[in-house]
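TODO from last week: model DNA-binding protein.
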Amino acid sequence: MNIKVSDLDHLKGEPLPFRLTLDADELKRRHQEIRGLTPVEVSGEAAKLGNLYYVKGELKSDVDFVCARCLKPFTRHTAVPFAETFAPAESAEDEDQDSDILPLEGDEIELNPLLQEDFLLAIPAFPLCEEECKGLCPECGVNRNEQACECKHERIDPRLAGLADFFKDSK
């Protein structure tokens, strides 16, 4: 979706509401942890204040993941707020290099690439079904969230294994 700068100029500071839906297949293809995705609904508003153009709103979707620790599939409702600021290209060049103000080239603000980036950056690289997920046992493979295992998880650094034998003899 594109927003015409001239429409915002004519509104003289009044917000211009918008709604759109992002392509779920494109987003799923671009992030390896997304297993499934409902259409990403976007609602927001754009306005011009001074010589800056502001776009803000929220992206909402239900995202299917597989837990990085226990490998259990789960779905999480995701709501991602976004806010972008644009300035005409000539005034944006005067701004500091670290500024969050994006240059506005042409007579339209192209939203889709920015919104896709905002959504994908909000998706975790290692999704967890729960923050306290215990994961799978590395010895027997049981899901430690569902049952306890009897495996001994004592790991000794091989460089210090000789010391472990030394302390066994002293008992």
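Done. The two ends are 74 Å apart (CA to CA).
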